[in-house]
Structure formats: C-alpha cells, structure tokens
Amino acid sequence: MMARPIRIIEGRAIPFGRANVDTDLIIPAANLKTISRVGLGRYAFAPLRQSPGSVFDDPAWIGAPILIAGDNFGCGSSREHAVWALADMGIEAVIAPSFSDLFASNAFKNGLLCVALDQEAVDALLDAAQRHKLRIDLETMSVAAGNESWPFALDPFRRQCLVEGLDEIGLTLENDAAIASYEARSPLIGLR
Fold first, then answer.
1. Is-above-0.70 flag for pTM?
2. What is the set of domains in the chain, with CATH numbers?
C-alpha cells in the first residue's frame, strides 16, 4: 500500500519551467549516502538554491505540492533518490511536457504523480500559477487553474494504482486468497 491514495492534488504550484532537469540537479550525488527517504528534501535543487532569488526558497512557493517544469524532466541517472527528495520537500505532482521514462517509473512506484501536458498548456500553467492555486483531479483527468482546465492522459493501470493507493506489494496482496489457496494445494510448497 502506498502512503495514500491520490484523487485530487490542490494547492500552489512552483513555477519552475526549466527544461532538461536531470536527477543530479534534483538531488546532487553528494547527498545520496543514505537509504532513508526522510530528510532528502533539504538537498533538493541544492545547486539552484545557492543562487539568490531561487524559486525554491521563495516564501510564496514554500509548501507548494505541485512543481511545474519544462520538457524532459528527470533525465540523467535512474536514481530513485530524486523522487524521494521531491516527495520529502512536499511535492505530490510534477507537471511537464515530458519526463524521462526512468524518472516517471520511479515516480509512479513511489506515489508521485507525473502529468504530461503540451508546452502551450505548461506555459499557460506557469502564468496561472502566479495568481491561482492549481487542482489536479485524477477522476476527471484534468488540471485546472482559475477558470481554465486542461485534460491529460495517464495509463489506466497507473491511474487505478494511484487512485487506490496501491504499489506492487499492495497489488500482490489483493490476490492473497488465491495465493494461499495455491500454496495449500501445491506439493512443492512443503519442500521449502
């Protein structure tokens, strides 16, 4: 079971917009000396936070559950720590025109929603985020800001897992009765 089912994510959105953000920028390699997910948020985007005026340290966006990014978000290495760092800083969803396949897979497995929208919609959301909270609705498969709304697509299996809060273990446990029945009938189980 994931930490929680995801149906609606609502709140301020960090208007980042940068394209080709790799996992080393999301969390530098120097901060990967842990297997704990707790505390990694303080290292998220550390190279950018060293510059004055970083959007990640702007009080207007502190605690925002949504990040709006540019094309090819999460490229680079396959480090799962990047997703953990985003989640630890409070990010529940990332909106971008595209995502690295490995990042999107890690995000899904850790309950972080990746919403792919075309560049025109992302540009509109970057602007809208300055004035409005955003609402991502997995039931209607839409992102809304103010009076505007943009539909998005998501693999039906991934959507179901996110809405029900299921990870791979949770999916397996849904078949607990069938597994137990098989084990009770199987002559091989007793050979362990």
1. yes
2. 8-191 (3.20.19.10)
Max Cα distance, the chain (Å): 67
Using alpha carbons only, give the angle 178, 179, 183 rounded to the nearest 5 degrees.
120
Decide the pairing of beta strands 66-68 and 13-15: parallel
Structure tokens at 6: 């995801």
Structure tokens, 8: 């609606």
Which residues, at least 6 apart from 89, have a Cβ–Cβ distance to it below 8 Å? 41, 42, 44
Tell me the per-residue pLDDT of 4-52, one tens digit each, with 9 for 90 and over: 899 999 999 999 999 999 999 999 988 888 777 889 999 999 999 988 8
Q: How many angstroms separate the CA atoms of 104 and 172, rounded?
A: 21
3-state secondary structure of 130: coil
